[in-house]
Write a structure and sequence with these properties.
Length: about 250
């Protein structure tokens, strides 16, 4: 068994365990295997272990990698999307987790109209009010929700968050609860369904599942550590740029 296959089995076991512990069904939780910085070869090992849903955080990297791989995969976009990359991103991704501003939502709506698409998206919430993070502050999202919902081409299916990093899993719990409560309050106030909560990464996905995650985004636990990000324009051994392009 390959290392990646073993890792995937371990993650799937943990998902099942966290689901059981919280009275949920493991089939209600989708594992998005995050392949950023990793080669197409490594993605193929995950495919061999039955994984079909993958996440990328940079459009340029995804445009290079996705065509190398089978067409039956589903790719999710999880990074900060620049407006000038929307046209390339829309046809590649089944779900965009990270709509993080009203301007981006409008750009997606306009381009989707031009190109005859109906993209599925989640709205990214800056749950801890971190200056360094993208995403809507909760109050601002509440104010803008009505006009976001009016964008005709966007299918808004839920919320996403990335809590502060570098803390233990339990430290994330209050942010996951906050995201779920925000979702519940929007469902009541705007009388709609927001079925998806994208929350939980390698260090805290079990806690996220306990708090209602339907999509977890896991990279390191499956593929191992990523090469450290560099500020230079250096490319890694797989030929992907590690500059801060998104
Ligand atoms: C890289 C990334 C992940 C995966 O993180 P790991 O800690 O490696 O599991 C999840 N979500 C987002 C938005 C990411 O950029």
């Amino acid at each position: 068994m390959s290392k990646i296959q073993e890792n995937l089995e371990r993650v799937r076991d943990q998902i099942a365990q966290a689901a059981r512990a919280s009275g949920r069904s493991a089939t209600d939780i989708e594992l998005v295997a995050v392949t950023k910085t990793h080669s197409a070869e490594m993605v193929r090992e995950a495919i061999a272990a039955g994984q079909l849903v993958f996440g990328e955080s940079k459009v340029q990297e995804a445009r290079a990698k996705i065509p190398l791989l089978p067409s039956n995969l589903r790719w999710h976009f999880i990074g900060h999307l620049q407006k000038n990359k929307v046209r390339h991103a829309l046809p590649l991704f089944a779900l965009i987790h990270s709509v993080d501003s009203h301007e981006l939502a409008q750009a997606i709506d306009r381009i989707a109209h031009d190109d005859g698409l109906h993209p599925r998206v989640l709205l990214e919430v800056n749950v801890a009010g971190e200056a360094s993070k993208f995403g809507f502050p909760p109050d601002k999202l509440h104010q803008e929700m009505e006009s976001l919902l009016a964008l005709p081409r966007l299918s808004i299916e839920g919320l996403m968050c990335i809590p502060p990093l570098g803390q233990d899993a339990e430290a994330s719990r209050k942010y996951f609860v906050a995201l779920r409560e925000l979702r519940n309050s929007f469902e009541n106030e705007f009388e709609l369904k927001l079925p998806h909560l994208s929350m939980g990464m390698t260090n805290d996905y079990s806690v996220a599942i306990e708090e209602g995650a339907t999509l977890i985004r896991v990279g390191t636990a499956i593929f191992g550590e990523r090469a450290k990000k560099q500020k230079s324009k250096a490319t890694d051994e797989h030929g992907f740029s590690q500059s801060s392009e998104s």
